[in-house]
Specification:
The protein contains 8 helices and 3 strands. It is mainly alpha-helical. Strands 2-1-3 form a 3-stranded antiparallel beta sheet. A hairpin with a 2-residue loop joins strand 1 and strand 2. Helix 4 crosses helix 6. It comes from Nesterenkonia xinjiangensis. Its EC number is 5.2.1.8.
Length: 265
């Protein structure tokens, strides 16, 4: 299962976001997202905070974190810190601010804070669920994720990733803790029962894509949709990811219903 399948579950997003803050090419959390989640599901309508309003042309807005408490939520007795929330929120805000510059719409800070908080809650629920189910994240698993994260961020080594993380004021220990948690989440989501797309579903998916095909190509010529067999593998991968997303979202919703969650934001 793709590590970016739920872009709102942003542990990996934070890691990759930090990776992009170094000298590496500025790719999003999903190598483009940001997926993201991504993929960005955050609304860009409404009024932002006093510090989040667009400044002079070319100047990036700053997020308002003045109202973030020391503990933003408790999930089954586990506290979620305001410090970690701020890191996540600032990362998401930066991505949304870049999008808002292109769209001309202000970032809705209240909505983004709510989404960031729900991301943290979902992460904690999945981590607890993974541990309860007996999943473990070994050192090799953590190192593999860090190597993938560094590569996706355009870095040559994990050491470069650690340096970029430290330049953002976060320690190597925290980086590895985040990676450990992300491995647990990935393992739990990969264990979800997801049916493979049927031939009928793939045909329907292809027909929908064909119907949405632009009538003209870039040169004004009629755009041609490849034959089904030519794109079957790609369609199967996309539809499988879609099913995985839906299964993961449903699982988190089930965990949320049974959890003791108290928020303070």
């Amino acid at each position: 299962m793709s590590k970016k399948l739920l872009t709102s579950f942003a542990l990996a997003g934070v890691l990759l976001g930090v990776a992009g803050c170094g000298d590496a090419p500025e790719e999003g959390a999903d190598g483009a997202e940001t997926e993201n989640p991504a993929d960005a599901e955050q609304g860009a309508e409404g009024d932002g905070g006093a510090e989040g309003e667009a400044g002079p042309e070319g100047e990036m807005p700053e997020p308002d974190t003045s109202d973030i408490p020391e503990v933003v939520a408790e999930v089954n007795g586990e506290e979620l810190s305001g410090e970690e929330f701020t890191t996540l929120y600032e990362n998401q805000f930066q991505q949304m601010a870049m999008q808002s510059q292109m769209s001309g719409e202000e970032v809705d800070e209240d909505a983004l804070k709510e989404q960031s908080l729900e991301s943290m809650i979902a992460n904690e629920l999945l981590i607890q669920d993974a541990e309860d189910a007996g999943f473990e994240a070994g050192e090799d698993d953590v190192e593999e994720l860090l190597e993938t994260t560094a590569e996706t961020g355009g870095m040559e080594s994990v050491e470069d990733l650690i340096q970029a993380y430290e330049e953002q004021g976060m320690s190597e220990e925290k980086l590895r803790e985040d990676a450990h948690d992300q491995v647990l989440i990935d393992q739990r989501l990969e264990d979800l029962d997801v049916e493979e797309p049927s031939e009928e579903e793939l045909r329907d998916y292809y027909d929908e894509a064909s119907a949405q095909q632009a009538p003209e190509g870039a040169e004004g010529e009629e755009a041609e949709m490849p034959e089904f067999e030519e794109v079957r593998d790609e369609l199967e991968q996309e539809l499988t990811t879609q099913k995985q997303n839906e299964a993961a979202q449903a699982h988190v919703e089930d965990l949320r219903e049974d959890a003791d969650v108290e928020t303070h934001l």
